């Protein structure tokens, strides 16, 4: 009887170990594929899966749960040095725009520790670095006031846009001179003009701007199978995403101008890290990660900035 009991316990232990390992270790092929795609630089990817924020790091080769049991998490983004994840909670459905009540924006360490509230009223749009300080750009529930919040320094939020209404998105170029806005109707903003020049005539959704100063930007087609890219002169062209006419969602430029993230294949079953061709006229290559639940809001950082000392808000 004791032998049988020991045997059963051993089998259960092996099953638990196997399940645990399967949860945290990515396929070796995935690490190799990502490093091949990104020319061997460390890459981190984050996304929302169910009530969790998940993360993948080529250095550890692991897919990990950064935070779990969150109240409708969304928009996870990775800090420049890769040490933190910034995200928001709120709304009624993950991935569906809902501004019936304020969203809360947080930052947390990559290992899931030291979660801190950045604002009680902020839908996270993007991150931006001015050369000295990294900021979270958030939108208040009035859907017209956009703030920049310092991630790791003491300082008051600063209003950067409070004109118009209903954009639900704001991303900036590296120099902060250009921005893109909108979900139901997209456009770009010239922050050097006084008064501010806001262009709204492009339609589509999910705009994103290149992370350099090329001022390239794209919007999503309503068919959810391709992007419309624009250069700084206003010329435009189409770029088809992987798997042709199958729907994709949540396209977003990474910190590297050649790479973007999006979901696809069965709406939300997979996330993609895709690479633009050098002329930005097509997708040159891509890798995918499959989830155990619907995936929302993937984003990535291809290559990490050096870590710097931090003075945390409220510390």
Fraction of residues in helix: 10-25%
Give the CATH superfamily.
TolB, C-terminal domain
The SSE string, one letter per element, is HHEEEEEEEEEEEEEEEEEEEEEEEE
**CATH architectural category:** 6 Propeller
> Can you tell me the residue ranges where pLDDT is under 50 for at least 5 consecutive residues?
7-23, 308-315
User: How far apart lie the N and C ends?
Assistant: 58 Å
- Please report which band the strand proportion falls in: under 5%, 5-15%, 15-25%, 25-35%, 35-45% or over 45%: 35-45%
Number of domains: 1
Count of alpha and pi helical runs: 2
Query: What does the largest sheet look like?
Result: 4 strands, antiparallel
Q: What general form does the structure show?
A: globular
Overall pLDDT: 84
CATH class: Mainly Beta
Question: What structural class do helix, strand and pairing data support?
Answer: mainly beta
CATH topology heading: Neuraminidase
Tell me the strand order in the biggest sheet.
3-2-1-24
**Count of DSSP E strands?**
24
How is this fold's topology laid out?
Layout: H1 2-24, H2 28-37, E1 43-49, E2 52-57, E3 62-67, E4 73-78, E5 84-89, E6 104-109, E7 116-119, E8 123-129, E9 134-139, E10 146-150, E11 158-161, E12 170-172, E13 178-181, E14 187-190, E15 197-198, E16 205-209, E17 217-220, E18 226-230, E19 236-240, E20 248-253, E21 259-264, E22 270-276, E23 283-290, E24 295-302
Antiparallel strand pairs: 1-2, 1-24, 2-3, 4-5, 5-6, 6-7, 8-9, 9-10, 10-11, 12-13, 13-14, 14-15, 16-17, 17-18, 18-19, 20-21, 21-22, 22-23
């Amino acid at each position: 009887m004791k032998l049988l009991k020991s045997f059963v316990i051993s089998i259960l232990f092996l099953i638990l170990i196997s399940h645990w390992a399967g949860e945290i270790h990515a396929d070796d092929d995935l690490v190799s594929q990502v490093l091949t795609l990104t020319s061997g630089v460390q890459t981190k990817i984050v996304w929302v899966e169910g009530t969790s924020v998940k993360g993948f790091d080529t250095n550890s080769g692991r897919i990990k749960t950064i935070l779990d049991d969150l109240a409708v998490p969304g928009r996870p983004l990775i800090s420049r040095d890769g040490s933190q994840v910034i995200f928001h909670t709120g709304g009624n459905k993950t991935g569906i725009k809902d501004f019936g009540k304020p969203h809360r924006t947080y930052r947390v360490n990559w290992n899931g520790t030291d979660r801190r509230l950045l604002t009680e009223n902020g839908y996270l749009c993007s991150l931006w670095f001015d050369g000295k300080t990294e900021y979270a750009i958030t939108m208040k529930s009035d859907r017209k006031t956009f703030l920049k919040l310092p991630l790791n320094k003491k300082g008051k939020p600063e209003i950067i846009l409070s004109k118009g209404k209903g954009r639900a998105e704001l991303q900036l170029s590296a120099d902060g001179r250009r921005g893109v806005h909108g979900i139901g109707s997209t456009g770009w903003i010239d922050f050097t003009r006084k008064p501010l020049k806001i262009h709204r005539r492009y339609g589509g959704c999910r705009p994103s701007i290149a992370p350099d100063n090329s001022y390239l930007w794209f919007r999503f087609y309503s068919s959810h199978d391709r992007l419309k890219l624009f250069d700084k002169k206003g010329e435009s062209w189409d770029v088809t995403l992987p798997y042709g006419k199958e729907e994709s969602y949540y396209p977003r430029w990474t910190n590297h101008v050649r790479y973007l993230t999006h979901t696809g294949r069965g709406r939300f079953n997979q996330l993609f890290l895709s690479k633009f061709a050098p002329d930005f006229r097509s997708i040159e290559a891509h890798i995918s990660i499959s989830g155990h639940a619907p995936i929302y809001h993937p984003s990535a950082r291809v290559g990490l900035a050096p870590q710097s000392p931090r003075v945390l808000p409220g510390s």
